[in-house]
């Protein structure tokens, strides 16, 4: 999986970077949201929970996927700014709920 950043924009109001990218996965299956987020986290030297993949759109028969992601400075900024369904889709909200349930069970 090769990733190319097409456009990167700093958004200081929301404490994040907004990134448009293309993933080249010729002769491979379409990468999942988690795999793409891990790759972006490595590229931008941040944690996986700070990366929210907003959209992924595969091109039929070409082996390329275009996408849009938001890379937050920290997890709290992501939780404050993002909608609940996007947090669930990216696996961030599930982690937050598990952390909240753990002390209640004791």
From TrEMBL:
Pfam families attached to this UniProt entry: Ribosomal_S24e (PF01282)
Gene Ontology CC terms: ribonucleoprotein complex; ribosome
Signal peptide region: none
InterPro entries tied to this protein: eRP_eS24_sf, Ribosomal_eS24, Ribosomal_eS24_CS, Ribosomal_uL23/eL15/eS24_sf
Keyword Oxidoreductase: no
Any single biological process term in GO: translation
Annotated GO MF terms: structural constituent of ribosome
Alphabetically ordered keywords of this record: Ribonucleoprotein, Ribosomal protein
Membership in a protein family: Belongs to the eukaryotic ribosomal protein eS24 family.
Entry protein name: Small ribosomal subunit protein eS24
Organism field: Methanomethylophilus alvi (strain Mx1201)
Lineage: Archaea, Methanobacteriati, Thermoplasmatota, Thermoplasmata, Methanomassiliicoccales
């Amino acid at each position: 999986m090769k990733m190319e950043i097409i456009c990167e924009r700093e958004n200081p109001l929301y404490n994040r970077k907004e990134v448009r990218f293309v993933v080249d996965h010729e002769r491979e299956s379409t990468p999942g949201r988690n795999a793409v987020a891990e790759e972006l986290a490595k590229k931008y030297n941040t944690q996986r929970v700070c990366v929210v993949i907003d959209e992924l759109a595969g091109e039929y028969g070409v082996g390329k996927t275009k996408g849009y992601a938001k890379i937050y400075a920290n997890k709290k900024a992501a939780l404050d700014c993002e909608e609940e369904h996007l947090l669930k889709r990216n696996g961030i909200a599930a982690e937050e709920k598990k952390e909240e349930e753990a002390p209640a069970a004791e």
